[in-house]
């Protein structure tokens, strides 16, 4: 580079720094400016020998990220300093210890979080990408600013991606649409979310993007003229009421137009509300709501509103803090126009998210606490449910994008929930204790099932009971990440309680076999039953999966002294890898096929005999429906095994303690008073058994019954059947 070019570049860097201070949304103290200056100097020094792919000095990238953080997101000086330093530890000789020494613990923590995110393994595979995203959320170090600066970093990378290889562009753009745009949306950064989506589309579907971009450009003149015409109609009325206001056209984003074209299967010209205007008015806090509705009435005096398209985010702000009044009216020339009515304060919140929300709410003196409170609220939004990575991301995004409904508590307080929420979601949003002890729910004074979908305006009352506790079915009824995480945690605790009971039972059973209960024995048992952890073992004893018979088998295998002696001489004793791990493995019941029982194949359970884990089964290869699994004593088994022996595959269940299965039992006997009560009492006193359906008929002193149960495995079912047979009056109990 020539000396003149270097001079020009340095001048440009200095100008950018001044602009950074000037555009900062927060009021910067002298102390803040010193911190930012120091971070700026360090970044300039660290990146002095680096260039970007486009050829410009690398330092322009951290400055641009800091400008986004300062102006568009409105964060504090700490965040601006961290944004300037975000690539220093990753790309230059500076260490994290040096950063902490120079700028303190908070800045160092944020920079560390950002460095960890950058060093995550990059891959096209969705599940790996999802796993990275999950790890990214876990690198927050209790500071959500890591994610916000990462969003700003991603925005600038997307804005300057032209110099990259096309395959890289597509990869980064896809990741942006998959992860970063939804997060910007959740944080309330609507402008950034829109820009990320549009840029994402530009690189993933360039033809679509360019087509819509060109059409918007072509129609811009016409749109501007239309908005002018629309505004002229209402301006006189607004001025007569002495409003201080501005009317802006709001072009729909390319991404949202594309999404509408796809979802509604329409052409560009048919998109419902391409025309959108925003009326931003000045008002004092006490007049704000009144003015909004006054402007609403002026607009609807002139243009007929679409009654189904009114959105009142002023009375009930969105959970991101967004407030506005949205109406769709029939404008001139018979075209629908979306009108957004916002005060200046609401407009800033819409553009800056919570940073502006708390500035207005608390005043500049308490700005710092405001930001902290905001960060804490966002931290809650990232609660980490224990699910696999892809489900986690999908669940997270579902919660981000879901439309909101507003329901009332019995006292008349308003609660915001995602669309599709159930009484269980409502219960957990009030308090974890309320959620875990939910027994039932009333909506608008009527009892409803826990799976009932709530609607805006519902008044919800939760009925609790000390004895109520979550069961596995609750996961089918809960939709919010918070409720699902708490239910899973509670089920995990319950399993641990069962494991504690199992440990006591196992100690007694081993004693009766004259085997000492110690770590060596536990290890041998875990290996013998092909389990992973000691908790797996105790849990399976607790639910009756490992019963007396199985423990006797273990004892006899152990007492064969000669065999044991030879085995110990030939090979080292096997030690369970995860013996002391504090978890119960969620290894669902699996069917293995083939002589060596080492193949896992897709299969369906035959409806003629409804096999459940633990049953003796075989696989039958059908012509059009894949492998069907039948019980060996299925009514059709003999015919299948004799006529189609070549289609039979050996099959066996391995492990059966983590999933629920449906089984139907039939009972017959002599009718007497209280018999039904005795039967249901016997079933409900059994562990982990749920009655789904119950049907009894009585005729001339004889009764017959049919009960559908949900059980873990056939050993539990056998226990129930043998106990039912002992009830006085029962003649026969059989499984369908």
From TrEMBL:
Pathway: Purine metabolism. SUPFAM superfamilies: HD-domain/PDEase-like, Nucleotidyltransferase, TGS-like. Keywords: Transferase. Residues 58-158 form the HD domain. Gene3D superfamilies: 3.10.20.30, 3.30.70.260, Beta Polymerase, domain 2, Hypothetical protein af1432. Residues 403-464 form the TGS domain. PROSITE patterns: HD, TGS. InterPro entries: ACT_dom, Beta-grasp_dom_sf, HD/PDEase_dom, HD_domain, NT_sf, RelA/Spo_fam, RelA/SpoT_AH_RIS, RelA_SpoT. CDD domains: HDc, NT_Rel-Spo_like, TGS_RSH. Belongs to the relA/spoT family. In eubacteria ppGpp (guanosine 3'-diphosphate 5'-diphosphate) is a mediator of the stringent response that coordinates a variety of cellular activities in response to changes in nutritional abundance. This is Bifunctional (P)ppGpp synthetase/guanosine-3',5'-bis(Diphosphate) 3'-pyrophosphohydrolase. It comes from Autumnicola psychrophila.
């Amino acid at each position: 580079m020539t000396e003149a070019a270097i001079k020009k570049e340095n001048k440009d860097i200095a100008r950018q720094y001044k602009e950074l201070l000037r555009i900062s949304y927060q009021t910067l103290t002298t102390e803040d400016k010193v911190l930012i200056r120091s971070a700026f100097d360090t970044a300039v020094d660290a990146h002095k020998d680096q260039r970007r792919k486009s050829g410009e000095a690398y330092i322009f990238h951290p400055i641009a990220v800091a400008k986004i953080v300062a102006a568009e997101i409105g964060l504090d000086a700490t965040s601006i300093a961290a944004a300037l330093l975000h690539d220093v530890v990753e790309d230059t000789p500076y260490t994290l210890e040096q950063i902490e020494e120079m700028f303190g613990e908070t800045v160092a923590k944020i920079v560390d979080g950002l460095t960890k995110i950058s060093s995550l393994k990059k891959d096209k595979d969705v599940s790996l990408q999802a796993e990275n995203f999950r790890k990214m959320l876990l690198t927050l170090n209790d500071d959500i600013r890591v994610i916000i600066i990462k969003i700003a970093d991603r925005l600038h990378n997307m804005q300057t991606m032209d110099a990259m290889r096309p395959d890289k562009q597509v990869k980064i753009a896809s990741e942006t649409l998959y992860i970063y745009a939804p997060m910007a949306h959740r944080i309330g950064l609507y402008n950034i979310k829109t820009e990320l989506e549009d840029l994402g589309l530009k690189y993933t579907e360039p033809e679509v993007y360019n087509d819509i971009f060109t059409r918007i450009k072509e129609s811009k003149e016409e749109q501007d003229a239309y908005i002018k015409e629309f505004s002229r109609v209402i301006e006189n009325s607004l001025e007569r009421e002495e409003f201080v206001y501005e009317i802006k056209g709001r072009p729909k984003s390319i991404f949202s137009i594309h999404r509408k074209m796809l979802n509604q299967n329409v052409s560009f010209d048919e998109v419902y509300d391409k025309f959108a205007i925003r009326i931003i008015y000045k008002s004092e806090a006490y007049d704000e709501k009144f003015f909004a509705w006054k402007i609403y009435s002026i607009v609807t005096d002139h243009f007929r509103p679409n009654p189904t398209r009114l959105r009142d985010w002023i009375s009930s702000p969105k959970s991101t803090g967004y407030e506005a009044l949205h109406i769709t009216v029939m404008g001139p020339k018979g075209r629908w126009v979306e009108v957004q009515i916002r005060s200046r304060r609401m407009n800033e919140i819409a553009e800056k998210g919570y940073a502006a929300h708390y500035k207005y709410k608390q005043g500049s003196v308490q700005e710092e606490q405001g930001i902290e409170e905001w960060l804490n609220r966002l931290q809650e939004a990232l609660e980490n449910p224990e699910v696999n990575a892809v489900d986690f991301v999908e669940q997270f995004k579902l919660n981000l994008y879901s439309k909101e409904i507003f329901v009332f508590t019995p006292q008349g307080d308003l609660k915001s929930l995602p669309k599709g929420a159930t009484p269980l979601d409502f219960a957990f949003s009030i308090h974890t204790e309320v959620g875990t002890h939910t027994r039932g729910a009333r909506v608008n004074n009527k009892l409803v099932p826990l799976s009932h979908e709530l609607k805006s305006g519902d008044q919800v009352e939760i009925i609790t009971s000390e004895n109520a506790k979550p069961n596995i079915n609750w996961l089918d009824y809960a939709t919010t990440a918070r409720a699902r995480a708490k239910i899973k945690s509670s089920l995990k605790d319950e399993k641990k309680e069962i494991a504690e009971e199992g440990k006591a039972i196992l100690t007694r059973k081993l004693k009766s076999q004259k085997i000492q209960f110690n770590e060596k024995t536990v290890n041998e048992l875990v290996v013998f039953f092909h389990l992973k952890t000691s908790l797996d073992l105790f849990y399976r004893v607790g639910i009756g999966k490992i019963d007396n018979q199985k423990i006797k088998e273990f004892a006899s295998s152990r007492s064969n002294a000669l065999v044991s002696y030879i085995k110990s001489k030939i090979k080292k004793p096997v030690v369970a890898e995860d013996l002391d791990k504090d978890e119960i493995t969620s290894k669902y019941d699996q069917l293995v096929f083939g002589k060596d029982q080492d193949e896992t194949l897709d299969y369906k359970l035959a409806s003629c005999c409804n096999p459940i884990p633990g049953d003796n089964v075989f696989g039958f290869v059908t012509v059009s429906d894949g492998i069907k699994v039948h019980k060996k004593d299925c009514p059709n088994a003999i015919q299948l095994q004799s006529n189609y022996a070549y289609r039979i595959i050996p099959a066996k269940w391995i492990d059966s303690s983590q999933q629920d299965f449906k089984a139907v039992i039939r009972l017959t006997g002599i009718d007497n008073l209280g018999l039904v009560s005795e039967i249901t009492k016997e079933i409900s006193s059994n562990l982990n058994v749920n009655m789904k359906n119950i049907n009894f008929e009585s005729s001339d002193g004889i009764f017959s019954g049919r009960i559908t149960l949900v059980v873990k495995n056939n050993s539990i079912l056998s226990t129930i059947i043998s106990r039912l047979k002992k009830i006085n009056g029962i003649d026969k109990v059989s499984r369908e």
